[in-house]
Design goal:
The complex is a heterodimer. Chain A is an all-alpha fold. Chain A contains 17 helices and no strands. Chain A has one domain: Amino acid/polyamine transporter I (Up-down Bundle), CATH 1.20.1740. The termini of chain A are far apart. By secondary structure, chain B is of the alpha+beta class. Chain B has a single domain, classed as Roll (SH3 type barrels), CATH 2.30.30.240. In chain B, a hairpin with a 5-residue loop joins strand 1 and strand 2. In chain B, helix 2 packs antiparallel against helix 3. The chains are: A mainly alpha, B alpha+beta. The interface between A and B is medium-sized, with 27 and 32 residues.
Chain lengths: ~400, ~120
């Protein structure tokens, strides 16, 4: 019974936890500018994430190591330090973007500009980390995040042409603005394959004391949860393609993005968009803050758990206190969260090999996984998608910076 | 046992199963006669940073004496206190007595306990 409960919670976690400012902004921009053409990037990213999530749960259940534990032990401190530096810097940018997303949602709901929300929002996120438990954060944020299912409702109400939507699942070249197209493809991949999700998931498996009997459930959670999450992202893209593209609206600001829901749901669309963003970004901000603290604590062997008093894992609590405080600063000065989002998603793609390649080596290591190590399918899918994301990122980021 | 693969960077647990950090370095004694043997486990910043570059190790050591618990020497745990080496390195010591938890205690007492709801490290 406990496992069935865990299964349903796991799937809800993934559905509620998948969409955040990164997936929404990248999918909305892609739909508004290129119609269905970039659906393939969401498909590819989701496929890779299914494998990565399954792998991180398997590593935790079989070896009782989180990804970070294993990277530090297997590759030593100097290598670990560079993985830490790259991954934490990018995750920090994503945290700024998520806090900005909450501020934006509150701005369109209340009319007070987002820089004023930076401090109160960061304080509430920090307070939940300080007082909350792991399951409160995991399940509470995810249940609230279910409001993002409204994107699917909106997509269905707009009666999309399913044949042309399906043709978007195969990559095609755009007629114009090629550099923007590839930059968006990279950003979508970065938004889908967030390394912080794998750190969060493997730490959660350890906090919930998984063993080998959880391996089948782990597979189901990874496959169904991430598929549902991917479908939510696709729904955002479809809604943007049908509601914004015909009017020639491109998503440069949050207010423009909010318009996409009003075509399908004139009465509630605007509020549903704001609430979806509010809850989704809130959940993501909590998950990223936890993931960064886990990264430091596990890497350095400190005591870590979200379920004990802060003084019992003082350095763990100190890391998230500091990180959340710092993340509020750029927002207070009015740095545009949409710009930070796009850049941090592309940088996520560029830095994927840093965290994922050592992870792949670990997943093939008999010391950690014995007979449960990766087969050729997992290795090929993850290896190829990471390579594609990296190459596209290295080519398109400079083009976007020069062009934009 | 393969020292680098099986011991270095492994998590250290004290006799109460409390995490004490990771094995940062190992001290070996090379005598005139007999094989070299491991005498101590080193824990803490300067040892770690030294592994990236000696200058970083010196910097970490200098900063550590200006701020925080101000330890002059890195925490050194005699190899004789090692009970088992497996998924973790299990030690027959009280974590707090070794110096490996100085920073944890310092952060708890000087920062976390001053924030409402932070709890008290002494209660443990």
């Amino acid at each position: 019974m406990k496992k069935i409960l865990q299964l349903s919670l796991g799937i809800i976690t993934s559905v509620g936890g998948f969409l955040e400012i990164g997936s929404v902004t990248t999918a909305a921009q892609a739909g508004a500018q290129f119609g269905y053409k970039l659906l393939w990037a969401i498909l590819l990213g989701t496929l890779c994430l299914i494998f990565l999530i399954e792998m991180s749960g398997r590593l935790a259940a079989v070896s009782k190591h989180t990804i970070v534990d294993a990277i530090r032990e297997r590759f030593g401190f100097p290598f670990f330090f560079f993985v830490l530096l790259g991954t934490v810097l990018v995750a920090f940018m994503v945290l700024v973007a998520e806090l900005g997303g909450i501020g934006f949602a509150l701005q369109i709901l209340m009319g007070i500009r987002f820089p004023w929300w930076a401090l109160p929002v960061s304080f509430v996120v920090w307070l939940l980390m300080w007082k909350g438990t792991f399951s409160l954060i995991e399940n509470g944020a995810s249940l609230l995040g279910l409001v993002t299912v409204s994107f699917v409702v909106a997509a269905l109400r707009l009666n999309p042409d399913w044949t042309s939507a399906a043709s978007g699942l195969l990559p095609t070249l755009p007629d114009d603005d090629k550099s923007k197209y590839w930059f968006l493809a990279v950003s979508i991949l970065g938004a889908s394959i967030s390394p912080y999700l794998t750190f969060f998931y493997s730490s959660g498996a350890i906090e919930d004391k998984w063993d080998r009997t959880y391996l089948p459930i782990n597979r189901v959670i990874a496959a169904f949860g991430m598929t549902f999450g991917g479908l939510l992202s696709m729904a955002v893209l479809i809604v943007a393609a049908l509601a914004l593209r015909p009017k020639g609206i491109q998503v440069e600001t949050f207010q423009q993005a909010a318009l996409m829901m009003t075509t399908a749901l004139p009465k509630w669309g605007f509020y549903l968009f704001a609430l979806s963003m509010l809850f989704a970004c809130f959940g993501a901000a909590l998950e990223i803050s936890l993931a960064i603290s886990y990264f430091f604590s596990q890497g350095f062997g400190w005591n870590w758990s979200e379920d004990v008093e802060p003084s019992s894992d003082a350095r763990f609590a100190f890391v998230y206190t500091l990180i959340i405080g710092f993340a509020a600063v750029p927002l207070m000065f009015g740095v545009d969260p949409i710009k930070i989002t796009m850049m941090s998603m592309a940088l996520t793609s560029a830095t994927l090999p840093l965290a994922i390649v050592p992870f792949l080596f670990l997943m093939n290591d008999p010391i950690y996984l014995g007979k449960h190590r990766n087969g050729w399918i997992s290795n090929t899918v993850v290896g190829v998608v990471i390579l594609i994301s990296f190459v596209l990122a290295v080519v398109s980021i400079p083009l976007e910076i020069m062009g934009g | 046992m393969h020292l680098v693969r099986d011991v270095l960077d492994k998590k250290l647990m004290d006799r109460e199963d409390c995490p004490m950090g990771r094995v940062g370095g190992l001290v070996m004694h090379v005598g005139e006669s007999g094989p070299p043997r491991v005498t101590h486990i080193l824990v803490g910043g300067p040892t770690l940073w030294m592994r990236i570059h000696p200058a970083l190790g010196r910097l970490s050591s200098a900063l550590g004496q200006m701020w925080g618990p101000r330890r002059k020497e890195p925490a050194k745990i005699p190899w004789s206190r090692v009970e088992t080496v497996g998924r973790e390195v299990k030690l027959d010591v009280e974590g707090k007595d070794t110096g490996a938890l100085d920073w944890e205690i310092w952060v708890a007492r000087h920062i976390i306990e001053h924030i409402p709801g932070g709890g008290s490290e002494e209660e443990e």
